[in-house]
Amino acid sequence: MKAIKKNAQSLFPFSFVYKGSKEPQNELPTHMHDFHEIIYVHKGTGTFFINNTLYNMNKGDVFLIPNDTIHHAVPNQDDLVTSSVIFFSPALIQTIPIDENFSYLFIVEKIKKHKYYKLSLSETKQVTLEQFLNDIDKELSEKQTGSIHAAILITHQILLFLSRLSIEQIDQTFREENYNRFWMNEIFAYIDKNLQGKISLSLLAEKAHVSPAHFSRVFKEMTGIGVTVYLNKKRTYKAKELLWNTDYPVSHIAELSGFDSTPHFYRTFKKFIGTTPSGYRQKQKSI
């Protein structure tokens, strides 16, 4: 399956979906993109895979997904999720340091630090956020002068609202959440720590104490892709970071990322990112 990598240009720097619903088969497979994403669950249930962790999805949940974070939603067929989604480029968000203790991207940075992407809202807080979302929908539907600017201003209000909630909730949730409620989470952690090594379906199934067939089925249900594609994506994303942050030769980066050969690295990287490793590095240096 071909990897999907959205970019800000594909959705403009701001896009909004109000109370949308998808069948499980219409959800994107595991993917990432260059913009941030705020998802609010109006109703329905499911599972959300975000950066190696599985989360339950329920009414009143908010998922904030920073750019370049792999994720995949799995709604329950018998209780489809209805959600509103804000896609926005970080460049749209006010960053002038009026108050050195706050920025509108505070919540994004906090989530990146803790690697915990979910907030659960009380009924009162749900009403507040739903009103913000309704206001965005009204602005974009009526298309008055400055409607997109108004929608972006409301997004700032939402980021402030979530930042205040995060101070109350994320630190405590981070300490108390039972990360092992899904046995697959331990597998994701193992993969992350051992990307350079030889990882196979049979090895992962053995570590999970299940049969390869059962492991393969559950893994694909959770991530939307097979084990081999997932490993190639993870290794490609690691290589992307190394190309950006180091001056290592491409062949060394291929080795550090766990690819069995440089030609395999080149083929896989171009398939997922759309350019060669050298081309990607050159493009980033020119920005």
What do you see in this structure?
The protein is α+β, with helices and mostly antiparallel strands and 287 residues long. The protein folds into two domains: 4-180, Sandwich (Jelly Rolls); 184-286, Arc Repressor Mutant, subunit A, CATH 1.10.10. Helices cover 48% and strands 18% of the residues. The protein has helices at residues 106-114, 123-142, 147-176, 184-193, 201-208, 212-223, 227-245, 250-256, 262-273, 277-286, and strands at 4-6, 14-21, 31-33, 36-43, 46-50, 53-57, 61-65, 71-75, 82-88, 118-120. The protein has a five-stranded antiparallel sheet with strand order 2-9-4-7-10, covered by helices on one side. β5 (46-50) and β6 (53-57) form a beta hairpin. α2 runs antiparallel to α3 (147-176). It holds the Pfam family HTH_18. GO terms for molecular function: DNA-binding transcription factor activity; sequence-specific DNA binding. Keywords: DNA-binding, Transcription, Transcription regulation. This is Transcriptional regulator, AraC family.
The CATH architecture name of the largest domain reads Sandwich
Q: Structurally, how many domains make up the residues?
A: 2
In the sheet with the most strands, the strands line up as 2-9-4-7-10
Approximate shape = globular
Low-confidence stretches: 1-11, 174-181
Major sheet: 5 strands, antiparallel
Count of alpha/pi helices: 10
Question: What's the total number of strands?
Answer: 10
Give the radius of gyration: 20 Å
- The CATH C-level name of the largest domain is Mainly Beta
- Overall mean pLDDT: 84
**Beta-strand share of residues:** 15-25%
Could you give the order of the helices and strands? Answer: EEEEEEEEEHEHHHHHHHHH
